[in-house]
Amino acid sequence: MIKSFITSFKLRNTYRANSIIYSIKQFPIINKILPNSLYKNKGLKIFANIMSILIEFIFTFLGKFLYIWLVIFSMLTVYSVDKIDLFLHIFLFLTIGGAFMNTYMLNPTKDKYYAIVLMNFDAKKYGLSNYYYQLLRVIIGFMPFTIYFGLMINMPLWLCILLPFFVVAVKLVIMGYCVLDFKKTGKAKNENIPTTIVWSTIAVCVLLAYGSPAINVTINQMIFLCVFSFAAILGICSLKVINSFKDYRKMYKQVLTETNVYAVDNNTGTKAMKDNSLKQIELGNSYTSNKTGFAFFHEIFVKRHSKILTKAVKKQSVVILLIFSVLFVVIKKNPIMATQMNKITLTYLPYFVFIMYLINRSASVTQAMFMNCDHSMLTYRIYRTPKVILGIFKERLKTLILINLLPALLISLGLAMTLYLSGGTDNPVNYLVIIVSIISMSIFFSVHYLVMYYLLQPYNASIEMKSSTYKAVQYLTYFVAYFFMRIKMPTLYFGIAMSIFCVGYSLISLFIAYKYAPKTFKLRI
Of these four, 138, 204, 394, 502, which has the most CB atoms within 10 Å of its CB? Predict the structure, then answer.
């Protein structure tokens, strides 16, 4: 098994190293300097392999750190309950929900597809060796941060050490269930296509993790230890089931289909996405429009693809309404919580830069526009003329802003109402600033992603992402938005500054797009 793991690790590292070299070649100017023979260069191969190992190291620790810090530790000041109990409470329920989302073994990745399907590796040895490696990464990655953050709230050291092992135990239990279910039904579960039951379970876990502490209901250390012991016993039993299972090839044959693998690895233009997209296009209706020219063309597109463009936003809006409804009830019934929320609303507005980044649908909408329109239309010369490009751009900008406006309005009004119900403010301007700044953030991300799409158009005719520059800008956007979570600033000052910045950035970006989009908006090779 160790030999199988070493071989699989080399395979994965080689694939990742080649991907790094390919990404380097995609940057402007660099792609003209570096030759295709670059893949044979030993020095660069060594550099790429070192980068690959470094990425593995970073993923082992960075994700765990952000998880503990953002979704657990940062929430300890929000609730008026014992910090140790709250930490254990959130950790327990999110671990259970996360185990359903991330089984590791049933994740249809490219390296598994290459090794098991194309290269005919022993499915059991490959699957188990990599599965145990991932569990080991969980322990190693979580341990420093459960200890560090646990000791900060005076949690006993032995309890801090148990937390990573609890994660492993729960994951073993879920995987053991998946194996037993496959034996019974003959149907393998794909972790990237969660069922309604799985989504419901995750939703309940998240609600329990963050909802029950609001009414002062949390587990304590004794309850956690009982759950840990139960999970550990089931985990050991599951380990036996997982090891004794023999039909891994049969199970992987269902999971590692070409559609599943490429739908996960390339989430921009796979057959699975195309098929799913086609199902949501409303072709049967005879849509028409009173508009003319580019506006007519775009409006017909929006009407036919309304499900694709607005479905996620409608779901977001329902969730936002539910969250604020629960929050309003809690504020009215819990004076301590009301005081906390008043403080948060008046000083934590910078957090909403990251939140607005997360809920903004512009990246997905531009992707849908390319998949269902541009990848075909860009093959026609007339569609690439400046007049057409800028005409469509203007109509799409209006649509993007309107699509993202609904959740932005709900959040802005919800925050203003939260401030009012939790005690209000001495300066009524704060209400206006909250509403204007949230809407400005929404417009900013709408403009930002559309301008990115037109200036860096990242897809080829097969709807595969080929632009490393586009990815780099995406990552940079994420980190900048995330950085704002570390800023604590009065709502009045931050809101005014953010609104001015958003307007200024939007105007500059639109000017650049109008000037350069006719040259950059084209199919990639």
Answer: 502
Retrieve residue 162's tokens.
């148990």
- What residues pair up with 459 in beta bridges, in sequence order? 465
DSSP secondary structure string for all residues of 88-120: HHHHHHHHHHHHHH--STT---HHHIIIIIIS-
234 and 330 in a single domain? The answer is: no
Q: Which residue, 264, 299, 320, sits at the end of a domain?
A: 264
Query: Looking at the structure, do residues 176 and 236 belong to the same domain, yes or no?
Result: yes
What CA–CA distance (Å, rounded) separates 432 from 420? 12
Distance CA 59, CA 141 (A): 9
Helix, coil or strand: residue 328: helix
The verdict on 194 and 297 lying in the same domain is no
On whether residue 108 sits in a domain, the answer given is: yes
**pLDDT at site 10:** 63
Q: Phi-psi bin for 216: left (phi > 0), alpha (psi -120 to 50), beta?
A: left
Cα gap 259→262, rounded to integer Å: 6
Same-domain status, 391 and 348: yes
C-alpha span between 76 and 90 (Å, rounded): 10
Do 250 and 349 belong to one domain?
no
Q: What digits encode the pLDDT tens for the residues 4-63?
A: 666 666 666 666 666 666 666 555 555 555 555 555 656 656 666 676 677 777 778 888
293: left (phi over 0), alpha (psi -120 to 50) or beta: left
Residues 242 and 341 in one domain: no
Phi-psi region of 305 (alpha: psi -120 to 50; beta: other; left: phi over 0): alpha
Which tens digits make up the pLDDT trace of 165-175? Answer: 999 999 999 99
Do 242 and 356 have their domain in common? Answer: no
The model's pTM is: 0.62
Do residues 119 and 14 lie in contact, with contact meaning Cβ atoms separated by under 8 Å? no
- Residue 170 resides in a domain: yes
Report CA-CA distances (Å) from 129 to 14, 133, 272, 364.
18, 6, 29, 36
SS3 323: helix
Cα 391 from Cα 310, distance rounded (Å): 22
Alpha helices in 186-292 (DSSP H): 196-211, 221-244, 248-255, 258-265, 271-280
Number of domains in the chain: 2
The torsion of the CA quartet 132, 138, 143, 145, rounded to 10 degrees, works out to: 170
Indicate the burial class of 501 (C-beta count within 10 angstroms; 0-12, 13-18, 19 or more): middle
Q: Which among 307, 319, 255 has a CA at the least distance from the CA of 281?
A: 307
| Cβ atoms 125, 112 nearer than 8 A | no
- The SS3 assignment for 428 reads coil
Task: Please check whether residues 252 and 330 belong to one and the same domain.
Answer: no
The answer to whether residue 272 sits within a structural domain is no
Host domain of residue 258: 2-264
* Encoded amino acid at 44, one letter: L
